[in-house]
Amino acid sequence: MTRTFYILLLFLISSVSYGQKYVSGTITRDTHWVGDIYVNGDVIVPKGVILSIESGSRILFKPKTDVLHSGVDKERAEIVVRGILLARGNSARSPITFTSEAANAQMNDWYGIIIKNLYDKSVLQNCVVEFSYKGITCYGSTPQIQDCELRFNYNSGISCEVRANPEIKRSVIMGNGFAGINCELASSPIITECVITQNNYGVIILSRSQPDLGHFPVKENTSKGENRIFNNFDFNVYNHSINNIYAQNNLWNTSDPDEIRFTLYDNLKNPSTLHTGRFIFSRFI
Question: Does pTM surpass 0.85?
Answer without folding.
Answer: yes
